[in-house]
Predict the structure.
Amino acid sequence: MEKLTLKIDGMHCGSCAVGIQMLASQMGGVKSAEVSYDDKKGTFEFDPAKVKKEDIVKAIADLGYTAS
Ligand SMILES: [Cu+2]
């Protein structure tokens, strides 16, 4: 299991954070997702054999946010 912390730009309220959190936790291979609107950060725990860091970044970008 690998842990990844991303800086997430483009969130404008707490439900943005919840939306990203829900999307990420529904991805196969992602064990946990915690997104903080206040910190503009997200922490994801994932299985690198099933999902790549780039996949998570892309999924967040598809929602309209910038993860780096
Ligand atoms: Cu929002």
